[in-house]
Amino acid sequence: MDIYKDKSRSFEERAKDIVSKMTVEERCEQLKFGAPAIERLSVEAYNWWNEGLHGVARAGVATMFPQAIGLAASFDEELLKTVAEVISIEARAKYNEYSKHGDRDIYKGLTLWSPNINIFRDPRWGRGHETYGEDPFLTSRLGCAFVRGVQGEGKYLRAAACAKHFAVHSGPEALRHEFDAVAEPKDMEETYLPAFEALVKEAKVEGVMGAYNRTNGEPCCGSEYLSGKLKEWGFDGYFVSDCWAIKDFHENHHVTATAEESAALALKNGCDVNCGSTYILVYKAYKDGLISEEEITSAAEHLMRTRMRLGMFDETEFDSLGYMDVETREHLDISLEAGRNACVLLENDGILPLDRSKIKTVGVIGPNAQSQRALMGNYHGTASRYRTILEGIQDEFEGRVLFSEGCHLFRDKVEGLGLPGDRIAEAVIVAEHSDVVVLCVGLDETLEGEQGDASNTDASGDKLTLQLPEPQRLLVKKVMEVGKPTVIVLVSGSSINVEAEPNALLQAFYPGSEGGKAVAEILFGKTSPCGKLPVTFYKDVKKLPDFTDYSMRYRTYRNERAEDDNVLYPFGFGLSYGDVRVVSASAEKIGEKIEASVQLENNGEKTADALQVYFKSTSKDAVRNHALCGFKKVKLEKGEKKTVSMSIPLSALTVVDEEGRRYLDKNARTTLYFGTSQPDELSERLCGKKCVEVEIKL
Q1: Residue 140 in contact with residue 431, Cβ under 8 Å?
Q2: Annotation says 103 is catalytic
């Protein structure tokens, strides 16, 4: 019996056996993202490229969850794991059905090139909303939860997750094919690498994707340093290039002279599969003596091992999944719950929740009110139904709902033959006839996203400013001048300064296909908002470091300078209809963990809130301010008191020196802060409460 057919043998043994039966040329062919069939070995054709960032994407109908940045706002590992489980169930179900019909096209496989765990270090980056925000600890925890949800815990992977983009990648988009992201050893270890290390070592992520850029001189898809890190961490999955990144070696980075040399450099440094076309030259590079048969064989074995782990040569417990398991009512309910958790209440003078008994007419105004795109984010799937914010309010409110688009998302008029500002008068009229105005403004994937996907070609998908597009700035000004109570619902994937003082401001990110219903439930008090900002919201882009500067010295909440006064809303901030506060906390070191007991109470309405733990060290190698080291979503009834236990690994309290060495500084004074926000002055002022401090002996 062929070893590769023997289910009692390890996946490693089976992969080696099946590859040994291939010719060298056949092995080379398997390294392309669209790998051909080998009929005599029962190897089906397989396309490695599929997307599952917040739902199975680009292959027909699937449940569409909030964009990743909105999922991050939940500060909820269990929710991330549940969402990822649904994504993988639907990916497997669609794969099974497509395979029955011989459809093995792109976006129909089981290798999901998600999650994106790059650090959202600068609010201008267009792809930042694909990430879990600016903090490496939050990114690590949510990323691990997502991977575990996608891959499952059985013998076979339900689907294969992929950590991307390795490494040091966060814009500018226009330069990504030629840019060298220079990062000091401290920043590498402290910020850019921790999430990748966690996903490899803890979550056993099956795939890793390299970035387009160079990191400290080496192209990321052919980097000896990054390849060495994966070996150091014990990575035993497959490595894939970003799409057409290997041709950048010779065309833009100029580290090689020919496409054959580029293929060889990538393969020698552990790139198993090429998303792109350069690997069609692997066999020629082999014939030219640029790479060895052993290097080709090793890559092919890695790829076949992943396919073995996915059960492509066996019967598995996932074979029964089919099309009736896609976009089920249960899955849509999970999307709705995720949408509720994605919303962050940034301002509220008491107008929210809206009192139905005092309102007869609600005016819904703005280009994102009736926009399906405003729900999506990029790398999205296709929902069979979208609940826009306008529709959500219409379904939730019994009175009259008036609507005006107000303006185009970014053009100066809605109708081609109209004059500039052709919907402003209607918006003002709607506001005049309304008891309350809900003003829906912001962006969508056409204004912030990946190079080539977004419409703002001047910035290649990045943002040039933190302001709303000019037509929306005018709309906000004119509507606010009417003087009616106004709630702004801001739909964007990143920091925006609305430059107004509404009665309430709700950040919805891109809340998924059920997002309009989620927003409406929050506005009318059926649900309390409970999201927290996974990124800092800034006032002015001009006060930020240069976009191309990858030093973390003055970036994110951990290192910001208070004297700059450029923060609108801090990382970790978010209001609710409850009044959750930490009453007391205690902590002690037990083994390799800090065991903490935290008492919370809720003096407001029923809600959920994110208990957050930060640490500050007097070590010379600590971050300037403080750093997140623990979080947990807690649900509390009105008036309820609850004691929560938390375990904080000592590794979360380490510091990093200038040489990139991570260590636990036992000689420094370490203070833990327990609260529902950061322990900074601005957060305390916005929340009206302080964190509880506990000094801990390491």
Answers
A1: no
A2: no
Residue 177 phi, psi (nearest 5): -80, -10
Q: What is the mean pLDDT of residues 524-551?
A: 97
- For residue 254 the two structure tokens come to 């100029």
| DSSP code of residue 356 | G
Q: CA-CA distance, 182 to 550, in Å (whole number)?
A: 6
Domain boundary among 291, 318, 345: 318
Per the residue annotation, which of 242, 325, 579, 665 is the catalytic one? 242
Same domain, 301 and 361: no
Give the global pTM.
Answer: 0.98
Mean pLDDT of 300-304: 98
pLDDT one-digit tens code per residue, 393-405: 999 999 999 999 9
CA distance 115 to 142: 10
**Gyration radius of the chain over CA positions:** 25
List the one residue out of 148, 143, 113 whose CA is nearest residue 131: 143
What CATH number should be reported for the domain holding residue 373?
A: 3.40.50.1700
Paired strand residues for 594: 589, 648
Question: Quick check: 108 and 95 in contact, CB under 8 A?
Answer: yes
Kindly state whether residue 344 falls inside one of the protein's structural domains: yes
**514 burial class (0-12, 13-18, 19+ CB within 10 angstroms)?**
buried
Structural contact between residues 156 and 309, judged by C-beta atoms closer than 8 angstroms: yes
Q: Which two tokens stand for residue 32?
A: 């392309």
Do 466 and 428 share a domain, yes or no? yes
Do 392 and 245 share a structural domain? no
**For the segment 308-362, what is each residue's pLDDT rounded down to a tens digit?**
999 999 999 999 999 999 999 999 999 999 999 999 999 999 999 999 999 999 9
Rounded to an integer, what distance in angstroms lies between the CA atom of residue 64 and that of residue 73? 17
Identify the burial level of 604 via C-beta atoms within 10 angstroms of its C-beta, where 0-12 means exposed, 13-18 middle and 19 or more buried: middle
The span from the CA of 168 to the CA of 178, in Å, is 14
- pLDDT band for 457, please (50, 70, 90 cuts): low
Pick the last residue of a domain from 500, 520, 535. Answer: 535
Query: What sign does the CA torsion over 261, 263, 267, 269 have?
Result: positive
Give me the residue label for tokens 């996907």: 453
As a whole number of angstroms, the distance between CA 601 and CA 578 comes to 10
Total domains in the fold of the chain:
3
List C-alpha distances in Å: 688 to 102, 228, 287, 462. 60, 48, 70, 35
**In this structure, are 369 and 510 located in the same domain?**
yes
Q: Would the pLDDT of 389 be above 70?
A: yes
Range of the domain at 230: 28-318
From the list 476, 454, 687, the residue with the least C-alpha distance to 576 is: 687
| Secondary structure letter of residue 458 according to DSSP | G
Residues 667, 621: contact at Cβ < 8 Å? no
Q: What is the mean pLDDT of the chain?
A: 97
Using CA atoms, how far apart are residues 464 and 471, in angstroms rounded to an integer? 16
Rounded-to-integer distance, Cα 536 and Cα 130, Å: 16
pLDDT of residue 453: 83
d(CA 270, CA 274) in angstroms, rounded, equals: 11
Read off the CATH number of the domain in which 692 is found.
2.60.40.10
Nearest C-alpha neighbor of 475 from the set 422, 407, 389: 407
Task: Specify the pLDDT at position 452.
Answer: 85
- 633 — phi, psi (to 5°)? -80, 130
3-state SS assignment for residue 694: strand
